[in-house]
Design a protein that fits this description.
It is a single chain. With 131 residues, this protein is mainly alpha-helical. The chain folds into two domains: 79 residues, no CATH class; 52 residues. The protein is 58% helix and 11% strand. It has six helices and five strands, in the order βααβααβααββ. Helix 1 crosses helix 2, helix 1 packs across helix 3 and helix 5 crosses helix 6.
């Protein structure tokens, strides 16, 4: 298995820098051709979403769709895939940020019945209690 950094994943998906996009795609193809998978950590996914939102002005629905495609792509090994899948669903349907939903889902997975926050965007999510 080989890990991917956020900038490689961004270039692969967005393709705005032609040279780097080709290099990212060639890297991912080479890893897959060798029988390995490309590991994408949750930190990379959080950075990825933030970059798509802030630098590329992607809408939440577009980002959720990209994340769902990454989750279904066989050459990508996503850290805590089931938790990420739940967080993507929460993000797609809720008012909060992807990283917040990922935090809530990880906390739930570790036995937390609630996660306390000051983020008012999460007031309707049963994973959180807004102080």
């Amino acid at each position: 298995m080989s890990g991917l950094d956020t900038n490689v994943l961004i270039r692969y998906v967005v393709g705005d820098d032609e040279k780097q996009a080709r290099e990212a795609a060639a890297c991912i193809r080479a890893i897959a051709a060798s029988g390995k998978s490309c590991f994408i950590s949750c930190i990379v996914l959080c950075e990825f979403v933030w970059v798509l939102e802030s630098a590329y002005a992607y809408e939440k629905g577009e980002i959720a769709s990209v994340l769902e495609k990454l989750l279904m792509t066989k050459q990508f090994e996503i850290q805590a895939k089931d938790i990420v899948r739940q967080a993507v669903h929460d993000y797609k349907t809720g008012a909060g940020d992807f990283a917040d939903y990922l935090i809530g889902r990880f906390n739930q997975d570790k036995g937390c019945d609630i996660t306390y926050t000051f983020d008012r965007a999460l007031k309707k999510c049963p994973l959180f209690s807004v102080l």
